[in-house]
Specification:
Number of domains: 4
Radius of gyration: 53 Å
Distance between the termini: 137 Å
Strand order of the largest sheet: 18-19-21-22-23-24-25-26
InterPro entries: Biofilm_reg_signaling (IPR052155), CheY-like_superfamily (IPR011006), EAL_dom (IPR001633), EAL_sf (IPR035919), GGDEF_dom (IPR000160), Nucleotide_cyclase (IPR029787), PAS (IPR000014), PAS-like_dom_sf (IPR035965)
Number of helices: 26
Largest sheet: 8 strands, mixed, barrel
Helix content: 40-55%
Organism: Marinobacter qingdaonensis
CATH topology of the largest domain: TIM Barrel
Keywords: Phosphoprotein
CATH superfamily of the largest domain: EAL domain
Structural class: alpha/beta
CATH class of the largest domain: Alpha Beta
Number of strands: 27
Protein name: EAL domain-containing protein
């Protein structure tokens, strides 16, 4: 291997460095002096061996050498020069004139051949010509190398770009595209080039793309930027979003090269552009937009999107003279499921409810989750209220079937309020508010139904708001009173129990009865706080009487569905019993059949827990609900209470008597105690005694009275009570 050339006088191409080689010292000196006179940098080598040594250590642009030299001749020097310094040219200056010698020298790479004796001017002219030619060749090679490096750099930059770089001809066909198209869209550049750009545009964006290319105001200073969807290879449905920036190419400045190296010919390019993949950004924007206008649990439109669509529907209905309907839906018994089974099951229930509701809708209807377990429904362009009625019935029917949540089978219903445009309002807020008002009227009348809004409801709602405010104040000011109605043994007129009944001593309206405020208390969830006050007072009063000598006295309390359905009902009730040191065996809770049948499994478990602790269970208003022998047999029930409507209708031979007869016979067959409510006459009492109904309550023995009067009655006798 040749040693590294580190000579500090390395030729820069401005002054040629020439190596002169000859075995005759006189001729060697003459050539060197002649060349130095023309400004060349000359190095002398006496003989071929010395020349090879200098070639190994110094850089030369040209060598002038003799062929016939002892030891190492000129041919060997040329061979060595070709190996070590191939860029160094050689001119033979020799007395050898044979054709074979000249031919051999030229084949070895000699640039020219000068015969001895030489003409000095001819030699200098030959040297000048050769050095000039070498300078031009080196300059060309240098420029070519720089061009290749520049092209390689630009090719690397273009193909390493994160964007698709492309060129289109005047007709919109690809004439260049970089390799990024393969990783982003799956196409080879060769597949794209020659095809019109619309072939990779999504069908929905073809018109926009074609217009953008032909827009008159597009220029190099004002490029066209637009977002389009591009199809990926292999599936027309697989699309990605791209931001395209394109502008025309000035034909005067475009170099018109024959071909590009990125695929296709760039000679006729008229448009240059880039396509940046913005799919992730668009998906993020779409997700953020979805979050802003949809409920993530049910995937339904949220309140904001519902209002936008309702506003638009009102505008269209006003313009076309049509009607529309707004429904407000509130799930019945959802809170029970959510509190009992947990929020995860509650969420699954909301999703299942949504699925059922959506199957009932028409194309163009908008169902939204308004919040919690409340939904709103927009029915645009209905012909008459009957259309809304039919949809409401379908919704109610769809939710009546049980829902299977894991191992649990649960039941929910729905209360629906309906507001028709323009009858129930001509603006968005009015329609939603009136549908909400109508829904609350459904709740007040037993739930699981629908009602259309009417103007009278607004008056009721105003009263309802005032009453709700007063009721909250009543709970704070202890305005609630507990009255007691005796339950009497019909055979000896002895008081065996007291039913606790709440009254409200309203500061302006006087004494209010349960029917005046209990439905509102249930709707507003104040029933829990109200019941706590009633129970505390009843446990205190009756507990005192029990400890004062009436050890067998029974306290009967009527509990609302909201209380019984609460997951901590048993725990909460027994905590209050223990807090007041009230004997559990003296407590009888009254619930209706409907409460039991709403969720038979859950209620059965709670009742069994209470019965195991000594608490008695009574079915209130028996005969007005399901009256199922199945649940009577399965549950730990102690008492049936005959509804007062049957007692009032009781006449010899009438239907009321038949029903009472059947209920009493059923109670005896099941070994249950029976209490007849609403007994007002001696005739009713006598008939009930004949049937074997030994416990009664009603005005015959007196109305419900405050604790002070009941205390007086109990003090008068510990054995029997004289009929009023």
């Amino acid at each position: 291997m040749a040693p590294e050339l580190t000579d500090p006088h390395f030729s820069t191409g401005l002054t040629a460095r020439i190596l002169v080689v000859d075995d005759e010292p006189r001729l060697l000196t003459t050539l060197a002096t002649l060349l130095r006179g023309r400004g060349y940098e000359v190095t002398e080598a006496h003989g071929g061996e010395r020349a090879c040594e200098l070639v190994d250590t110094q850089r030369f642009d040209l060598a002038l050498l003799d062929l016939r030299m002892p030891g190492v001749d000129g041919f060997e020097v040329m061979s060595h020069l070709a190996r070590v310094q191939p860029d160094c040219g050689a001119i033979v200056v020799s007395g050898e004139s044979s054709f074979s010698a000249v031919s051999r020298a030229l084949r070895r790479g000699a640039l020219d051949y000068i015969r001895k004796p030489f003409d000095p001017e001819e030699l200098l002219a030959t040297v000048a010509s050769v050095t000039n030619k070498q300078s031009l060749l080196k300059a060309h090679e240098n420029i070519q190398l720089r061009l290749e490096k520049s092209e390689a750099l630009h090719r690397y930059i273009v193909n390493s770009s994160p964007d698709i770089v492309f060129m289109l001809d005047a007709r919109g066909h690809f004439c260049f595209v970089n390799s990024k198209v393969e990783s982003l869209l799956g196409y080879q550049p060769a597949e794209i080039c020659g095809n019109h750009f619309r072939h990779i545009l999504d069908d929905r964006d073809v018109a926009r793309g074609m217009y953008a290319l032909s827009a008159p105001n597009v220029s190099s200073d004002n490029p066209r930027t637009l977002e389009v969807r591009l199809k990926t290879r292999g599936s027309r449905r697989a699309t990605r979003h791209f931001e395209i920036t394109a502008f025309p190419i000035d034909p005067q400045t475009w170099p018109h090269s024959d071909a590009t190296r990125g695929g296709g010919s760039g000679q006729s390019a008229r448009y240059y552009g880039t396509a940046r993949d913005v799919t992730e950004r668009k998906e993020a924007e779409a997700f953020i937009n979805f979050q802003a206008y949809h409920d993530l649990l049910t995937r339904l439109p949220n309140r904001a999107l519902f209002k936008d669509r309702l506003e638009l529907a009102i505008t269209q209905a006003r313009r076309s003279g049509q009607k529309l309907a707004v429904m407000f839906l509130d799930l019945d018994r959802f809170k029970v499921v959510n509190d009992t089974l947990g929020h995860a099951m509650g969420d699954r229930l909301l999703q299942a409810v949504t699925h059922r509701l959506e199957r009932c809708l028409r194309k163009g209807d908008t169902l939204s989750r308004f919040g919690g377990d409340e939904f709103t429904l927009l029915l645009p362009a209905i012909r008459n209220p009957e259309d809304a009625r039919q949809i409401a019935k379908k919704l109610i029917k769809a939710l009546r079937a049980p829902f299977q949540l894991g191992e649990h089978e649960v039941f929910v219903g729905v209360s629906i309020g309906i507001a028709i445009y323009p009858d129930a309002g001509d603006c968005m807020d009015q329609l939603i508010q009136n549908a909400d008002i109508a829904m609350y009227h459904v709740k007040a009348r037993g739930k699981d139904g629908y009602r259309f809004y009417s103007e009278t409801m607004s008056i009721d709602s105003a009263n309802r708001l005032n009453l709700e405010r007063d009721l909250r104040l009543a709970l704070e000011r202890n305005e609630l009173r507990v009255f007691y109605q005796p339950q009497v043994c019909s055979s000896d007129n002895r008081i065996v129990g007291l039913e606790a009944l709440v009254r409200w001593q309203h500061p302006e309206r006087g004494l209010l009865f349960p029917r005046d405020f209990l439905p509102l208390a249930e709707e507003t969830r104040l029933i829990g706080q109200l019941s706590e006050q009633v129970l505390d007072q009843a446990f205190q009063d009756v507990g005192h009487w029990i400890r004062s000598g009436h050890g067998d006295l029974r306290l009967a309390v009527n509990l609302s569905p909201v209380q019984v359905e609460h997951p901590k009902f048993v725990e909460t009730l027994m905590q209050r019993v223990q807090a007041h040191n009230f004997p559990a065996g003296n407590l009888e809770i009254e619930i209706t059949e409907n409460v039991i049948m709403n969720d038979l499994d859950q209620i059965s478990q709670k009742l069994r827990e209470l019965a195991a602790l000594g608490v008695r269970i009574a079915i209130d208003d028996f005969g007005t609900g399901y009256s199922s022998l199945n649940y009577l047999h399965r549950l730990p029930i102690h008492t049936l209470k005959v509804d007062q409507s049957f007692v009032k209708g009781m006449r010899s031979g009438e239907d009321g008597a038949c029903i009472v007869n059947a209920i009493v016979a059923m109670a005896h067959g099941l070994k249950l105690e029976i209490v007849a409510e609403g007994v007002e006459t001696d005739q009713q009492l006598t008939y009930l005694r004949s049937l074997g109904c030994h416990q009664v309550q009603g005005f015959f023995y007196g109305p419900a009275e405050p604790a002070a009067r009941i205390a007086v009655t109990l003090e008068q006798t510990l054995a029997s009570v004289t009929p009023a």
